[in-house]
Here is the input.
Amino acid sequence: MNNYTAKLPKIKVFRDPIHGYVYINDYIIDQLIDTMEMQRLRRIKQLGTSSTTFHGAEHSRFNHSLGVYEIVRRIIDEIFVGREEWDDQDRLLALCAGLLHDVGHGPFSHSFERVFAVNHEEFTQAIILGDTEINAVLRLVAEDFPNQVADVIQKTSEKKLVISLISSQVDADRMDYLLRDAYYTGVSYGKFDFERILRVIRPSENGLVIKASGMHVVEDYIMCRYQMYRQVYFHPVSNSTEVLLTNIFKRVKYLFDTGYQFRQPPHHFISFFEGKIALADYLKLDEAIVLYYFSIWQDEEDSILCELCRRFLNRNLYKHIEFGQSADDQHKLEQMRALMQQVGIDPDYYLTVNASSNVAYDQYIPGKDEEGQPVSLLLPDGQKKELSQQSTIIGAINGLRNDYYYLYFPKDLVLALPESGAKQELMQLLGLSEHKKGMLKYIP
Here is the structure.
């Protein structure tokens, strides 16, 4: 049997709220979905801690991975098939790369990565190329097929068109997560005319291009992405949960490094603390495991760790104020840190500046951004023009960077402090004041 083209006896379908159905007809794709590494993604949320703000955002990276696969499949089978610019021998390669592009994500991945200095992209490579069930399935196609898939995901493959299907400014990854995240968070910002985009996508030697008649739907798509970052991905309340999560991991690592005797030793994290992370240890971690430890650590003797875990599990979040990066702001931060230490609150865990940044649309400039991909419009005469050169809207936001800085702190702990000059000074710096009747209030 030629596993490269092998089909299932009967097409399988997955019901999906975004795409209606996800169609599985290829034997290799079916086998990949059933691997333990793919099934692990069911236990990792796509949006990490965002469900503390948008309670419906409980969808998983498994959902998203199937969605990316389905978009790639539709583009290839409905749009690219029969076009001379597309080599149908790359079909399975593209489908596998779309399905596996996020397989290396860990629990609450971004906070986890910051504390333990791990990179989910490196683990994606390790899972595809290492001693795993996914690697064994891919080798059923050819011995070097895992390397081909890994090269596409890492963007080192010579097959630029295949890469652009899952990694470009208009790709299957972005299209699925915008639609899916908008659906599960209950917002309308990420909803764009997906079917229209499919109709105007075309293959070219160097990647996807958009028919000039589809310029306006791509404008809408880019603005949707811009709004999703502003309103959902960088939401300050969700970031408050991220801050708590980061501080929990940071505290546990500090306690481990200083010889603290845990009532429940962090067995699943030891290799991370020691900087010798085995792939098998990484694959054992999911969000259920992390939450189990947080629940147990509520009863630890270390007051900071148990307090942080209780806050995270019970959604007792830090409050936030907008905070800049000027010299004056940094001076205020140092003042607040000193005052917190004076009143007995550890600023390393209870005073955090969180920064987020996003570029609305970043025009690709050769030599400047090797990671970038242009959005090229295919004109009726066959010429290709970069989107921001043709679109007034995109030209106006090209290179527009949005930076968000918030200072997070435990309002309740500050207000509960005994009266003192240090408390009053700290409250003033944090924007806390009193009503005339003596009631404390918070000024956002």
About this structure: The domain at 7-234 is CATH 1.10.3210.10 (Hypothetical protein af1432). Confidence is low (pLDDT under 50) at residues 364-371, 435-444.
